[in-house]
Inverse folding.
């Protein structure tokens, strides 16, 4: 069973627990106000979708030494890498079943590109700068409340901006250079969750999928960026939101 399956099981357990409530809880009055605030903790799993150039397998020729410095590429891949995020919530009620929400936060999420060559000793993993701040905004469509439970779906967009991104120096050995991404990029996202009401607060377990818009790659002439035509980021986020 993979990590996403475990998250879905946890999500279901959180939601089903509320069905055994004996009387509706107040939830701290969050739903009785037009504005409410809170905070969130998130587990993040992200990986790159890779669009390779037609000649991506060819060895990389370094004009500085006048020869190929890599063998033929067999594959370029990106496995899911874990991370976490913390942030706060600002919510505005548009109607009984619709609200506007933003959850800006600080994200620490590993991203890695793996290169496999015809000569296995050249295989390498290249980490990509991953610490960022995110500014999402979404519409949340809620069901009727049943006792201490309310299900919802959401959709929206977000802007992400990298913190402390590094540059490749012209003096750096080509085999030590980084795969650089754009500092700022947009994404669209969809998700589902449930509101669970307690006496003094409301807890919302949530699962969300997001995909970046456009090409994140900064084209550079090095063995790791040159074979790639386009990079986009796919992210799965499990959140616990407290209001």
């Amino acid at each position: 069973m993979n990590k996403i399956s475990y998250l879905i099981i946890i999500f279901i357990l959180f939601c089903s627990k509320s069905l055994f409530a004996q009387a509706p809880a107040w939830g701290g009055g969050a739903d009785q106000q037009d504005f409410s605030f809170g905070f969130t903790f998130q587990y993040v799993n992200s990986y790159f979708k890779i669009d390779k150039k037609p000649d991506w397998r060819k060895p990389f020729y370094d004009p500085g030494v006048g020869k190929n410095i890599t063998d033929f590429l067999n594959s370029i891949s990106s496995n899911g890498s874990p991370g976490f995020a913390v942030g706060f919530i600002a919510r505005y009620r548009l109607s009984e079943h619709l609200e506007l929400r933003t959850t800006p936060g600080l994200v620490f999420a590993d991203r890695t590109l793996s290169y496999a060559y015809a000569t296995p000793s050249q295989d390498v993993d290249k980490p990509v700068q991953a610490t960022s701040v995110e500014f999402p905004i979404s519409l949340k469509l809620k069901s009727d409340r049943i006792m201490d439970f309310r299900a919802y779906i959401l959709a929206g967009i977000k802007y992400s901006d990298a913190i402390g991104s590094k540059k490749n120096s012209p003096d750096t050995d080509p085999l030590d250079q980084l795969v650089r991404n754009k500092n700022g990029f947009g994404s669209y996202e969809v998700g589902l969750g449930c509101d669970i009401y307690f006496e003094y607060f409301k807890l919302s377990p949530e699962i969300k999928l997001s995909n970046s818009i456009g090409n994140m790659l900064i084209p550079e002439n090095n063995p790791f960026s040159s074979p790639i035509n386009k990079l986009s980021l796919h992210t799965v986020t499990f959140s616990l939101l407290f209001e």
In short: The chain has one domain: 36-191+204-242. Residues 36 and 135 are 17 Å apart (CA to CA).
